[in-house]
């Protein structure tokens, strides 16, 4: 028995969620035990199977932006306007989510630079209530766009969401037109809007700001769709093709512009910003 196998056997139930400071983590795709420090150095991409692990705003901003970026304050919104309660109160769910999260809701913006190019970057955290889009996400999106316009910089967003936040009912769906109008403000200012779709991006987020980028990138194998596969399969009564709703499938069918490995994202974003900003100056 190898040393690694012995260690592995001794800690059978290690998951990132249960033990955030653990030395080892398990790749959710190939089940390989990964030394946390190596996994982090590899940008939370599994060195064995290349699975791109889900990461939060701080890890993402650290990977993409130059040191010295500034995290923007989260806008305050009216909380729990519907006094929603299912098996738990919405306010209790929010409290629990905040207890485990470094930021007060699912979308966090920062201003700074990507390899020397000024940019405002928004990151949606799937770890915060499934990255769901409610009023706080809508308000943060608008704040990100306003700052981009003020800085005359592009707005780059990393999407990750299970969809709209059902606890806010129709108010969550209203964020779809609201964010769409904000994107128009960017366009009116002649500034690029760049979307990086990460695993998973679904529901109302896919149906609004996640699909309106001037350039649409995605991380490898990211799940991107509106309705879930089972719902679609049951509705059309047909077996869905291999790789359906995955980044590579969407790329092959012309829905997105490129699939970019996490290690190449920073450089690719910098190139795309150069290209789009040069086009703006020439216009
Ligand atoms: Zn793996």
Helix content: 25-40%
Bound molecules: zinc ion
Strand content: 15-25%
Low-confidence stretches: none
CATH topology of the largest domain: 2-enoyl-CoA Hydratase, Chain A, domain 1
Order of neighbouring strands in the sheet with most strands: 3-4-5-6-7-8-9
Based on CA inertia axes, which overall geometry fits?
globular
In DSSP terms (H or I, runs of 4 or more residues), the helix count works out at 11
Binding site for Zn(2+): 27, 30, 46, 49
Pfam family, one: Carboxyl_trans
Organism: Croceicoccus naphthovorans
Keywords: ATP-binding, Cytoplasm, Fatty acid biosynthesis, Fatty acid metabolism, Lipid biosynthesis, Lipid metabolism, Metal-binding, Nucleotide-binding, Transferase, Zinc, Zinc-finger
Short description:
This protein is of the alpha/beta class and 283 residues long. It has helices at residues 3-10, 36-41, 57-64, 90-99, 135-151, 169-173, 175-188, 203-206, 229-236, 247-252, 262-282, and strands at 24-26, 33-35, 70-71, 107-114, 117-124, 155-161, 193-201, 215-218, 258-259.
């Amino acid at each position: 028995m190898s040393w690694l196998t012995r260690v592995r056997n001794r800690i059978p139930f290690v998951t990132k969620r249960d033990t955030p400071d653990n030395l080892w983590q398990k790749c959710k795709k190939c089940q390989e035990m990964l030394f946390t420090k190596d996994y982090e150095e590899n940008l939370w991409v599994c060195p064995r199977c290349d699975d791109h692990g889900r990461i939060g705003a701080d890890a993402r901003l650290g990977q993409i932006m130059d040191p010295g970026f500034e995290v923007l304050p989260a806008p305050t919104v009216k909380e729990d306007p519907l006094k929603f309660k299912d098996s738990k109160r919405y306010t209790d769910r929010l409290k629990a989510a905040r207890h485990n999260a470094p930021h007060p809701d699912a979308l966090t913006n920062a201003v700074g630079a990507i390899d020397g190019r000024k940019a405002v970057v928004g990151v949606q955290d799937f770890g915060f209530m499934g990255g769901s889009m409610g009023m706080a996400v809508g308000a943060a999106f608008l704040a990100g766009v306003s700052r981009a316009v003020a800085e005359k910089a592009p707005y780059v967003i990393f999407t990750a969401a299970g969809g709209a936040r059902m606890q806010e009912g129709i108010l969550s769906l209203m964020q779809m037109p609201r964010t769409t109008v904000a994107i128009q403000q960017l366009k009116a200012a002649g500034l690029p809007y760049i979307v990086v779709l990460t695993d998973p991006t679904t529901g109302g987020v896919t149906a609004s700001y996640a699909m309106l980028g001037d350039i649409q990138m995605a991380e490898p194998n990211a799940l991107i769709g509106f309705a879930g596969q089972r719902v679609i399969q049951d509705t059309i009564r047909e077996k869905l093709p291999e790789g359906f709703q995955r980044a590579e499938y969407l790329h092959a069918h012309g829905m997105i512009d490129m699939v970019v490995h996490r290690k190449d994202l920073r450089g690719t974003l910098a190139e795309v910003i150069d290209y789009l900003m040069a086009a703006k100056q020439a216009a």
